[in-house]
Amino acid sequence: MHEDNELPSGGHADVRIVAATPEVARRVAEVVRRCFASTEQRSYPAGPEGGTLLHLSVDTTQPAGPAGSWLESSESASEGRRPEEGPRRDGS
To answer: Which of the 8 DSSP states describes residue 79?
Structure first.
């Protein structure tokens, strides 16, 4: 995990998951890990009311499974569109 004022290196992202229970946080992290190469997750108490805060870092330059095919299709679908137009509402 990087300090708040430090950006991850190119192609990497820090992911923060906040959930009511550790099991829910682990389930979400598992989905992310199936899509991207990632570091070992680190979990912490989310706050005085309970819950779990889970951090992991992912390498988006090594997409796997669903992310690989989704990234390829989203890149080809966005060609020719300006960034300010944003994503299409029809899901493509």
So the answer is: T
Phi, psi of 20 (to 5 degrees): -70, -30
Predicted confidence at residue 51, as pLDDT, reads 92
Burial class (CB in 10 A: 0-12, 13-18, 19+), 22: middle
What pairs with residue 43 in β-bridges?
54
Can you tell me the distance from the alpha carbon of 26 to that of 24, in angstroms, rounded to the nearest whole number? 5
C-beta of residue 58 within 8 angstroms of C-beta of residue 19:
no
Distance separating alpha carbons of residues 75 and 68, to the nearest angstrom: 11
Q: What is the pLDDT of residues 49-89, one digit of tens each?
A: 889 999 999 998 887 776 666 666 766 555 555 444 554 44
